[in-house]
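quick one, two chains, predict together pls
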Amino acid sequence: DAGVIQSPRHEVTEMGQEVTLRCKPISGHDYLFWYRQTMMRGLELLIYFNNNVPIDDSGMPEDRFSAKMPNASFSTLKIQPSEPRDSAVYFCASSGDLAGVTTGELFFGEGSRLTVL
Amino acid sequence: AQSVTQLDSQVPVFEEAPVELRCNYSSSVSVYLFWYVQYPNQGLQLLLKYLSGSTLVKGINGFEAEFNKSQTSFHLRKPSVHISDTAEYFCAVSRIGGYQKVTFGTGTKLQVIP
């Protein structure tokens, strides 16, 4: 399996522009997570999906952030409009049952480094 | 709710020396325990996990961790570190039963000195 695939790996944009980050989870995994990592705040869970349904978006910073999962193999995280404080590395991770038991073990993508000027 | 404490934000150690990275957790229920490693400019990858059974868990790259329920600890150890072990290490827990929301520690940066 190719693992969790994220794109783009790097994005530089100007304040006010729309940013869309993409994620393809591992086939067969039924949980998908979006995390944000910064020096100041560490690793933060933004939102997670189970079977394509958003379950908990309490970590989404504000209404400028939105996430969708239209099918089991694709998710997007959108920021509109973007601000300099959104600069961070955004990780997608997926998780699946281990012999019918969900352990919480996560498989991470390589991340999308966002810089908002 | 559960929480994870990694007391050391940075740990410098000479090459070929042993290292221990400390992790303590707090939870009112039983948990699964994990250590993840993040190399520069990469995502996190699983180093090892404790689900049940033997409290001494062996992972990749010669690392091991011991689950101590009475001390609520899950310290990570390696008897002899290599330059390539320079990375950030995250301890994490998830609750057993139901959806296992993962709680991460703040990370420990291991710097291996030649």
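Chain B has a mean pLDDT of 92.
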